Amino acid sequence: MAFESLASRLQGAFDKLRGRGKIDETAVNEAMREVRLALLEADVNFKVVKEFIARVKERAVGQEVLKSLTPGQMVIKIVNEELTALMGGDVAKIAVANRPPTVVMMVGLQGAGKTTSTGKLAKHLQKQNRKPLLVAADIYRPAAIKQLQVLGEQIKAPVFSLGDQVSPVEIARQAIEHAKENHLDYVLIDTAGRLHIDEALMEELRQVREVAKPDEILLVVDAMTGQDAVNVAESFNQQLELTGVVLTKLDGDTRGGAALSVKAVTGKPIKFAAMGEKLDALEPFHPDRMASRILGMGDVLSLIEKAQEAVDTEKAKQMERQMRQGEFTFDMFLDSMQQMRNLGPLEDILGMLPGMNKLKGNMKVDEKQIGRVEAIVKSMTKAERANPDLLNASRRKRIAAGSGTSIQEVNRFIKQFEDMKKMMKQFTGMTDKIKKKQKKGGLKMPGMNFPFNFKPPFK
Amino acid sequence: MSFFSKLREAIVQKSEAVTQKFTDGLTKTRNLLVEKVEDLVRRYKKIDEDFFEELEEILITADVGVGTVMELIDELRGEVRRQKIENALDLQPILSEKLVALLKNEEADATSLQLEDGRLNVILFVGVNGVGKTTTIGKMAHMFKQQGKKVLLAAGDTFRAAAIEQLEVWGERVGVDVIKHQQGADPAAVIYDALQAAKSRGVDILLCDTAGRLQNKVNLMEELNKVYRVVQREVPGAPHEVLLVLDATTGQNALSQAKTFGQSAGVTGIVLTKLDGTAKGGIVIAIRNELKIPVKYVGLGERMDDLQPFDPEQFVHALFAGLIAEEAAETAKQQQE
C-alpha cells in the first residue's frame, strides 16, 4: 500500500516550509492537516480525528514546538503521546467473578471472528489453569455449532450445545447450570453475528444478558473495519453495556484505526488482540504499541519481546565469544540466520521496524533468496564451512550443483560473506582498542559491548 | 434533460422490487453521504477552503478512499476555477456526475459474469477471513439453480473448523452436490477433484470455495496461487471468474486486499457483502477508481435471494434517491407554471 508513515509525512510538510525562515502557526496547521490525513487513512473515524486534532493543535501551537529545532519531531512526539493517552494506558485483564462461574458473552457483527476468538479465549484461560466451558449459542449460521465443537476438541475444552432449535436464551441458562454442576469456572457464550441495527436480534442479546448476567460482554471487532466501526461500537455499547473489546485480524496489514475509534466512543478497554490463525494467537492488548502502529511508526517493543522469546541466549553468547577472537564461519552465519528466522516471516519483522512500513510496499522480501543462501551453506562440507579459504573453483562448482544455484550466485554469496567477516574484524579491533585504553585507566565507557546485531548481507 | 432525470428514466424500466432492495439496503449510505452533501451545500453560500475540507471529510467518512477523494476534490477545484463557480449549489450536480462517472463501467457488460452455455464455467471465490465467501457461494448456487443450471460446489476451505460442513448445509438447502475432502487437506487437490467431477458430470457451473486468508500472508497467497494454477491447467480458459468477496464495512484495507488478491489469483470482479446494515459502500468507488476492478454482485440481506447483480445505475439511484425526488418535484413545479 502506498501508505506513508505519518512521521515522513510530517517531515515533508515541514521541509516545504523550511525556506521561509520562521516556522509559525501556518506551519503547524499544515502539519495538522497531514496528521489528519494519516489518521483518516488509517481508518480512524473522522469525528474522533477532529477532536484529537484539536487537542494536539492546542499543545503544538504552544511554545514547545515553535522553539524546537526539530519541530517535525516535536509534533510527532506530541501526537504519539496524545494517541497513547487516548488508547488508554494499561493492559486490561479479563474479569473474575466472586462466585464462579465467570460468564463471558461474545458479541459482534457477522464475520468479525467471534467463534474463533471464543476458542482462542478458552485456550488463553486454560493456560492460566482455568476450566472454560464453550457455549454454542449461534443457532443461525450453518455449521456454527460444529465449528465451536471442532475448536473445543482441538483445545480439549467442553462444548455445551442444545442444537439449533432451542433459543439462545435457554441455551445460556442451561449452560450456566451445567457449568456449576461440573465445576467449570468460565462460561464463554458464542452468540450469532448480527447487525447492530437489527432490532429483533439485538433484543435477543438483551434477553440472553438478562438470564446469563455476564461478568464480561466483549465486542469482537474486525481490525480492518472502516469509518463505520464507531456506529457499530456505539450501538452495541448502548444496548448491551459492553465491558471490553476484542480486536481481531490484527495480523493483517491494516493500520487498525478502528481500535482508536472504538475506544474513543465507548470508553471501554480493548482487552485482547487476535494476531494469527492459530488458537494460541490471542494476546493481551498493548495500547501504546497500537498507537505506534496507527502512526506507522513500527512496533519495536513487540519485536524485542519476540526476539527474547526466539533467540537462544547461550548460543548467542558463544557466538559473541568466537567473534571477538576474529572467528566467523559459515556455521555461525547459518546459526544466526536461523535465529532470525525463528522470529517469524521476515516481512512481519520488517513491518515492526520504524519507517519500514513505507519501504515494505516497494521492497518485496524474498524469502526464497534466504532459502537459496541456506542451501549454498548446507551444500558445503564441514571442513569448508569451518575454513572458507578451502573454497576453490571446483569446490564452488560442486556447491552450486548441490544447492541448485549457479556458480555466480555462490561466488557472490562468498564475497558477501568475506566482506561481512572483514567488517566484524574491524568491529572487534575497535572494541579491543577501547578495552585496552580502559585498562590503562583513561577512558571509561560503560555499556560498550560488542555490537552483536549484524544482519545477513542481502536486501 | 438533466442528468438525474435521465438516470431516473433508466431506473423506471427496471423491476420495482430490485430497486426497492437497493434503496432499502443503501438507506444508511444515502443518509450519510447525500444528506451531508446537501447540508453542506446549503450552509456554505460561497465556496472556500473550509467548504472543500468539509466535503473531503464527508466523502472519507463514507469510506471512499483517501486517494480517490483527493483526486476528486482537486478536479472540483479545477472546475470551480474554470467555470468561475461561486455558489456552492452550482457545484452539487458536478459532484454527483463525477461520482457516477467513477462508478460506471467503461464497458456496459463488465458487471455481468462471464458465463457461457454449453461449457463448464468455473468461478473461484477468494477473500480475507469472515467476509462471507461461503454464504455468497450458497446464495449464488441458489441463484443459478433457479435459472435451471446444473451447479456443483467445491469445499476448498480445508482450514477453518467446520467450513466444509457449512458449505454442505448450503448444498443441502439449495439441492446441489458438494465435492469435499477432510479438514486439513490440500485445497488444490480438492479443487482438482471437483474439476474432474464437474467435467464427468457435465456440470454448467462449478463454484469453488477457498479458505479466508489475510493478504499479507505470503505462504497462504502462494497456496491460493497454486489453486488458481490448477484450475487454469485443468480447464482451458478457466477460471472464468475470480470473485473477491469484500465486506462492505471494511475501510482502506479493502484496497490492499483487492490489489494483492488481484496479483495472486487474477481477480476479475468483486462481490460486496453486508451492504444492508452499515453506512458503507463508498469503498466501491475507491476500488473502481484506483484498481479498475468492477463490482459484480452485492449482498443486501440475510435471505437466500438477497444477492443481487450490481447495477451502477441502481446504486447511484439509491445513493441519490433524495436528490432525484427533489429534482423531479422541481421539474413538475416548473411545468405547472
Automatic annotation (TrEMBL), chain A:
Domain Signal recognition particle SRP54 helical bundle span(s) in chain numbering: 2-87
Q: Does the keyword Transport apply?
A: no
* Reactions that this protein is recorded to catalyse: GTP + H2O = GDP + phosphate + H(+)
Q: Which InterPro entries match?
A: AAA+_ATPase (IPR003593), P-loop_NTPase (IPR027417), Signal_recog_part_SRP54_M_sf (IPR036891), Signal_recog_particl_SRP54_hlx (IPR013822), Signal_recog_particle_SRP54_M (IPR004125), SRP (IPR004780), SRP54 (IPR022941), SRP54_GTPase_dom (IPR000897)
Q: What is its EC number?
A: 3.6.5.4
What is this enzyme's class at the first EC digit? hydrolase
Domain SRP54-type proteins GTP-binding: residue ranges = 101-296
Assigned keywords, A-Z: Cytoplasm, GTP-binding, Hydrolase, Nucleotide-binding, Ribonucleoprotein, RNA-binding, Signal recognition particle
Q: What does this protein do?
A: Involved in targeting and insertion of nascent membrane proteins into the cytoplasmic membrane. Binds to the hydrophobic signal sequence of the ribosome-nascent chain (RNC) as it emerges from the ribosomes. The SRP-RNC complex is then targeted to the cytoplasmic membrane where it interacts with the SRP receptor FtsY.
Q: Which family does it belong to?
A: Belongs to the GTP-binding SRP family. SRP54 subfamily.
Q: What is known of its domains?
A: Composed of three domains: the N-terminal N domain, which is responsible for interactions with the ribosome, the central G domain, which binds GTP, and the C-terminal M domain, which binds the RNA and the signal sequence of the RNC.
Q: What is this protein called?
A: Signal recognition particle protein
TrEMBL record, chain B:
Question: Taxonomically, which superkingdom?
Answer: Bacteria
Q: Which keywords fit this entry according to its UniProt record? A: Cell membrane, Cytoplasm, GTP-binding, Hydrolase, Membrane, Nucleotide-binding, Receptor
**Which reaction does this enzyme catalyse, per its entry?**
GTP + H2O = GDP + phosphate + H(+)
Which residues, by range, are in coiled-coil regions?
Answer: none
* Single GO cellular component term: cytoplasm
Recorded GO MF terms: GTP binding; GTPase activity; signal recognition particle binding
The protein's topology relative to the membrane is:
Peripheral membrane protein
Q: Which residues bind GTP?
A: 127-134, 209-213, 273-276
Please give the biological process terms from Gene Ontology that the record holds: SRP-dependent cotranslational protein targeting to membrane
Give the matching Pfam families. Answer: SRP54, SRP54_N
Q: What is its EC number?
A: 3.6.5.4
The SRP54-type proteins GTP-binding domain covers which part of the protein?
294-307
Can you say where in the cell this protein is located? Cell membrane; Cytoplasm
Q: Which HAMAP family match?
A: FtsY (MF_00920)
Q: Which family does it belong to?
A: Belongs to the GTP-binding SRP family. FtsY subfamily.
How is the quaternary structure described? Answer: Part of the signal recognition particle protein translocation system, which is composed of SRP and FtsY.
Q: What does this protein do?
A: Involved in targeting and insertion of nascent membrane proteins into the cytoplasmic membrane. Acts as a receptor for the complex formed by the signal recognition particle (SRP) and the ribosome-nascent chain (RNC).
Q: Return the protein name.
A: Signal recognition particle receptor FtsY
